[in-house]
Amino acid sequence: MNQLLDLDARLSQTLRVAEKPGALRTLAGILAHSGDSWFWLLGLGIVWLVGDTYWRELAALFAGGILVTAVIVMAIKFTVRRKRPPGEWGSIYRRTDPHSFPSGHAARAVLLAVLALGAGPVWLACVLLPWAIAVVFARVAMGLHYLSDVLAGALVGILVGGIFLIAPMILA
């Protein structure tokens, strides 16, 4: 197991740009923050307030998925208790959530892409899928997660998104 963790740390380090000033670091920092749950819940609340029935239902689906994903991710984090990689960037995350496995941002981003693929308009899926992949790698690039953290988070997002999409069919 230690060999796998060492490999994970080495691979994660090769993707890291947090200590390298420049455009790539700036872009990775923006993407790393763009998956914040408060940002998405606020945006979905606005969509729900101003949208028609279709957009209200989609916003409710996305918000419900975000909340369920958060509960699952936090349960795993407090069970596993893996410390985040060392670093300075992202101090708010480091203070409020010192655990890295699995990545909640990766889970949330992938969940949103899966829900858009299954229930949203095609254009939204075309926007959210590449964004989700970028968020996943940005979290590693900024030193907040190991590669295995974001891969596990993405798996959680896929599973929760799939359940949210098939549950109505099963329950009908």
Question: What are the main properties of this structure?
Answer:
single chain; 172 residues; mainly alpha; Vanadium-containing Chloroperoxidase, domain 1; 78% helix
Give an overview of the whole structure.
The protein has 172 residues and is mainly α. It has a single domain (2-171), classed as Phosphatidic acid phosphatase type 2/haloperoxidase (Vanadium-containing Chloroperoxidase, domain 1, Up-down Bundle), CATH 1.20.144. It is built from 8 helices and no strands. The chain has helices spanning 2-15, 23-34, 37-50, 53-80, 91-96, 104-119, 122-141, 147-171. Helix 2 (23-34) crosses helix 7 and helix 4 packs antiparallel against helix 6 (104-119). The longest helix has 28 residues, at 53-80. It is globular and about 45 Å long. The termini are far apart. The model has no long low-confidence stretch (mean pLDDT 92).
CATH class: Mainly Alpha
Mean pLDDT: 92
Counting DSSP H or I runs of 4 or more residues, the number of helices is 8
CATH topology: Vanadium-containing Chloroperoxidase, domain 1
| CATH architecture label name | Up-down Bundle
User: For this structure, what is the CATH homologous superfamily?
Assistant: Phosphatidic acid phosphatase type 2/haloperoxidase
